[in-house]
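Quick one: structure for this chain?
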Amino acid sequence: MSHVRKTTHSRKASPRKKNRPGRGITRKSTKRATSKRWSQRVTKESDALDLKRGVFTLTSPKRIAASLKRSAEHSARRKTGAYRSALSMLTFYINRAGKTLPKTQRERLEKAKVELRRAFGRE
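Got it. Here's what it folds into:
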């Protein structure tokens, strides 16, 4: 007796690929990613900045910029100038958040970029 499985779509089952000479066998990679959230690892372990916790959730763009500036100037981990490191970390956060970042917070962080330029006298 055979059991018939009902499906809600009409997709045909694809035949199994046979191992043919001259073609590689595709296998799943057994190598595991070192971190599920690589951006979190980059933030913690990179030679960028030692950030104050929750700096990107502050409500004032001026306070965000001031905190980033303070962190950049006092960090022993950074390899470039303080302004470049601070701006890079802010941009990194905005880019990694992507579409999940609320519009109001994105606007606040974009304003923080302007404030950061002002704080470093780059305006």
